[in-house]
Amino acid sequence: MTENITTPTAAKKTHKVRNVILIAFALIVVGSIYGASHGGSSTAATPAGPAAAAAAPTKDTRTVVYKVTGTTTQASLTLQTAAGTSQQNDVDVPVTSKSGTEGLTYEVDPYSFVYVSAQNSKDSGTVTCSIEVDGVVIATNTSSGAYAIASCSGTAK
């Protein structure tokens, strides 16, 4: 029969290795908790200098402004929002938000399909639609005459 005999020196070495591993693990856990609670990341360092600009996160949403103008006084609108398609009948032209600013503003995900159409609700006049994404006009169109439709579409890049 073979007996497993541990010498006091071997036992001390085993305990030292175990203690070093436990201390390293505790430091990693504490560092991760501290970093996460102070706005840091527990997985990567934040780059500095020119690399920081290249690694900067992109904007999570795009600001889309649908504008409808023209010589007509009213139009019926169909537009694409983050929640789906919205229809509004006999809206005063030019279209303004509840706060009085020109156009209707929505936040959408990047690369979302954006669309607005405006149908003249009157017997004559023109109707013009346009779409701005983050301040840049990506589409515009004008139609004239009774019940004419102007439509604009694009991608919120």
Explain what you see:
This protein has two helices and eight strands. The N and C termini lie far apart (76 Å). Helix content is 23%, strand content 41%. The model is unreliable at 29-49 (pLDDT under 50). By secondary structure, the chain is of the alpha+beta class. The strands form two sheets. It has a four-stranded antiparallel beta sheet, with no helix packed on it.
Query: What is the approximate shape?
Result: elongated
Residues in helices, as a percent range? 10-25%
Structural class by sheet pairing and helices: alpha+beta
Strand runs, count? 8
Reading off the top of the CATH hierarchy, the class of the largest domain is best stated as Mainly Beta
Which labels suit this protein?
Immunoglobulin-like; 4-stranded antiparallel sheet; 2 domains; elongated; 157 residues; alpha+beta; 8 strands; 23% helix; single chain
